[in-house]
Amino acid sequence: MSQIISLLFASILMSGTVGPNTIFSFMLLMLATGVGVLVVICRVIVGGWIERTRCRNWPTVSAVVDIASVAYCRPDGSPILHFKASSYNPYYKATLTYIYHNPEEQMGDYSRDFGSKEDAESWVNSYKGETVKVYVDPRDPTRSVLREEDL
Predict the structure, then answer these.
(1) Strand-by-strand arrangement of the 60-73 sheet
(2) Disulfide-capable partner of 55 in 28, 91, 127, 145 (CB 3.0 to 4.6 Å)?
(3) Three-state secondary-structure class, residue 149
(4) Rounded to an integer, what distance in angstroms lies between the CA atom of residue 131 and that of residue 100?
């Protein structure tokens, strides 16, 4: 991203038509881009918090952790979708997939990130086959939330 900005700025400077309006427009564009990225990141964080808070009033059911998996994750170059990792700092996504009945069989999952494969595998293996409490959306029984506080 910084290379693109540098190239864009260099091309503006080399065009020979650099004036106060051009520099102001460029700075305004960079500011708008930064604000846009910040808004997307905040929306993801706030959206997760709202989801965890809203589910507290949902009815709970018992679920069984059926699948426990670990996946190696590294960024694909997207600064928005993978702002947690860099090419020098990969991480492991540990996912617990659970099954519950409300009234029909439903499936949900919960993921957590780890810095090492061993920690991630140890965590998922400790929950494989275990019974956990999940919160089910009363308006949509296919939607459920497993809160970390309940593990």
Answers:
(1) 105-114, 91-101, 60-73, 131-136, 144-145
(2) 145
(3) helix
(4) 10
What are all long-range contacts of 84-88, with beta carbons under 8 Å and residues at least 24 apart?
Answer: 84/113
- pLDDT (tens digit per residue) in 12-70: 556 656 566 777 777 788 888 888 888 888 887 887 677 667 788 899 999 999 999 99
| Tokens standing for residue 134 | 């999940």
The length of the chain, given as a count of residues: 151
Q: Which helix (DSSP H) or strand (DSSP E) does residue 90 occupy? A: none
pTM of the model: 0.63
* Residue 3 one-letter amino acid: Q
Structure tokens at 102: 């409300």
Specify whether the CB–CB gap between 8 and 26 falls below 8 A: yes
Q: Interior CA angle at 72 toward 113 and 68, to 5°? A: 65
